[in-house]
Amino acid sequence: MAVLPSRILRNRSTRSPASRPAQAERSEVNSVVDCAVYVDGGRLPGHRTHGEALAEVRRRGTGFVWIGLHEPTENDIKGIAETFDLHELAVEDAVHAHQRPKLERYGDTLFMVLKTIRYLAEADPRQTGEVVESGEMMVFLGRDFVLTVRHGNHSGLAGVRRQLEADPEHLALGPAVVLHAIADQVVDSYLAVGAVLETAIDEMEARVFAPKTTVDAEQIYLLKREVLELRRAVKPLGTPLRRLADGYSAVVPEKVRSYFRDVEDHLTKVSEQVAGFDELLTTLVDAALAKITLRQSSDMRKITSWAAIISVPTMVAGIYGMNFDYIPELHYQYSYPVVLLVILGSCLTLYRTFRRNGWL
């Protein structure tokens, strides 16, 4: 992974954000989705750069800034990192992504990574090899700001922002409420994907155990791989949510911690569900392979039975087809119909025997 140039965090100006040159503050234009100031749960009107927004909050001594970014580059996030004094390691993770869910503390700033999951309703796993799409969500949380960095073309936060703005009393609790709302949306998406996968697995189970139906084990393996993708997002997230609920940082006030406990409960439900999916799919793979083996064994018995039946006329024809003059009954008047009756009787006897034993 490339290292973010250290000049991003060196030579920081000691001037206030409001006094920074306007040109430097425009560096985030390409990736900033929204930048807003919230005071007492309400959004202040007007458009501001990140420096102007932070200066407004600190001038008032209340409220917080919420900036949303989508797949920023190093140049896009450079000015924001300087303004909000973000740690270079966290900034590097936010730019390059490909992180596992985690929670880290850098001074008074929390950095949290969540993996987002979306079910691809239009996808055919037999052709595309996947039915879920993953992305990442990074959140920088301070006492008077929250920065969200999104990677992927799903799990947008416009709905979360509208929902929070519709409840000013709840939003007035501070930026930690935004982190909770994001975590809640992400975990709810896990529940939605889990419900869809459960339906798909139930259908696969019915097909595996349906009579006279053969299921390719590869189809089950593809589902198992998608469950593994969901598991990678769900399992590591439990510890960060537990830390937030237990007062890991003073940035999360006591009134908000109980909300994280609720999200953790939902995550536990998904985690147990994913573990059940994994075990069930393993069982289905074994059952499908056993069914294929049983069918192959049945086919071999049928082939063997018909080979035994065909061997009777083959043997008789082979004997009487030899060019010897003194073969018994060769010149007998009724040899031909007698031989045909013997062949037919022998074949019918073998057929009934194999049929009675379940080979045919």
From TrEMBL:
Record keywords: Cell membrane, Ion transport, Magnesium, Membrane, Transmembrane, Transmembrane helix, Transport
Any one GO molecular function term: magnesium ion transmembrane transporter activity
Region of interest: Disordered: 1-26
One Gene Ontology term, aspect cellular component: plasma membrane
Reactions catalysed according to its record: Mg(2+)(in) = Mg(2+)(out)
UniProt keyword Transport, yes or no: yes
Subcellular location as annotated: Cell membrane
Membrane topology: Multi-pass membrane protein
Residue spans crossing the bilayer: 303-322, 334-354
Taxonomic superkingdom: Bacteria
Major localization class: membrane
Protein role: Mediates influx of magnesium ions. Alternates between open and closed states. Activated by low cytoplasmic Mg(2+) levels. Inactive when cytoplasmic Mg(2+) levels are high.
Family the UniProt entry places it in: Belongs to the CorA metal ion transporter (MIT) (TC 1.A.35) family.
This protein's name: Mg2+/Co2+ transporter
Organism encoding this protein: Actinoalloteichus hymeniacidonis
Lineage: Bacteria, Bacillati, Actinomycetota, Actinomycetes, Pseudonocardiales
